[in-house]
Amino acid sequence: MCILHVVGARPNFMKVAPVMSSFQKRNGVMQTLVHTGQHYDHNMSMLFFDQLEIPKPDINLEVGSGSHAVQMAQIMLRMEKTLLDYSPDWVLVYGDVNSTVATSLVCAKLGIPLAHVEAGLRSFDRTMPEEINRLVTDQLADLLLTPSPDANENLMREGISQEKIHLVGNVMIDTLIRLLPNAEILWENGKIHNLTNDRPYGLVTLHRPSNVDDPSRISSIIEVLDGISEELIVLFPVHPRTRERFRMYDIEPKNERLCLVDPLGYLEFLALQRHATFVLTDSGGIQEETTYLGVPCLTLRENTERPVTVTMGTNILVGADLDSLKHQVNEILNGNPKLGSIPPLWDGKAGDRIAEAILNSSS
Ligand code: UD1
Prior knowledge:
Elements: E1 2-7, H1 10-24, E2 30-35, H2 46-52, E3 59-60, H3 68-86, E4 90-94, H4 98-110, E5 114-117, H5 129-140, E6 143-146, H6 149-157, E7 165-167, H7 171-188, E8 201-205, H8 209-212, H9 215-228, E9 233-237, H10 240-249, E10 258-261, H11 266-275, E11 278-281, H12 285-293, E12 297-299, H13 308-311, E13 315-317, H14 322-333, H15 350-362
Parallel strand pairs: 1-2, 1-4, 2-3, 4-5, 5-6, 6-7, 8-9, 8-11, 9-10, 11-12, 12-13
Helix pairs in contact: 1-7, 1-15, 3-4, 4-5, 7-11
């Protein structure tokens, strides 16, 4: 059997790693890894391949950045040729990025069986590009591999037949469980921005258009972070898209305890999450990783496609209101963090369940 995996952007890499290694343990499976090149900076891409021990991609489509239409069109053009050359038995796509949906469209047109890892998540907010990507990909996929029961409910409500849906659990957590010990070694060696257990800090990531594209919004957020950094160090690894906005709008923090740094590797960032007093984010995956780690997470968004992190985990949706953000940070600093538990099937074995589901669907 010939399986072709497609990844393109940073959050895809921690999902493909366990699936590839689960297939590797099984006989008679040939795997091909295609990187679309959506993310291309070393610390957004190859650093992750090294740390996660993902094999070097067999093909890099090198599409790079562009408007959504340009980026997706480039992926589709180059992907069609690749899929015709390789004619795989299954294509696996991951998450909700532009590479995911562009590949799904090409597979559907060519009639190549498509499996979607992390299917069924919904924010019900169609202003987010990722929501469009999720909706379209799930309509086209032949096998929908879901992380939590809410995802199954969403898919059934959208008319997708139950036989196609398999609840496999959270595959990103497989990678976290495998690599947490390595991250802890880095932490113990005190190698990460000189932070140690006796220097409390908050960890921030923001890159969504709703937070960073409007100059007055992002300036107000930085002002609030400046204020919070009076209380504790705030470390903010800055996504390239956010860095570009800071440059365009001439934004700089005032307080030197608000530290803007380059994007970090997987192990460094995992260690920082594990030891943070709180994490403030608009990412999807970080809401899940903090829930697993039991670290308070404040999500600067109106909605989440990962509701289980709120109902069971440590995640609080702060919404857009920055006063509410200040209030929630104070709650944590005053010793009242939200406690949570780990959702079922976030157990390090989702990669194996995915491999089984695909092999069973082919027999
Ligand atoms: C993409 C995903 C988003 C995910 C995020 C994680 C889509 C629609 N969005 O957003 O869901 O949460 O990845 O990082 O697919 N850039 C670089 N170097 C890179 C990559 C990007 O400088 O290696 C800059 C470019 O200026 C580019 C911008 O970042 O225009 C945005 O990159 P893009 O891949 O379009 O989307 P992300 O914001 O990274």
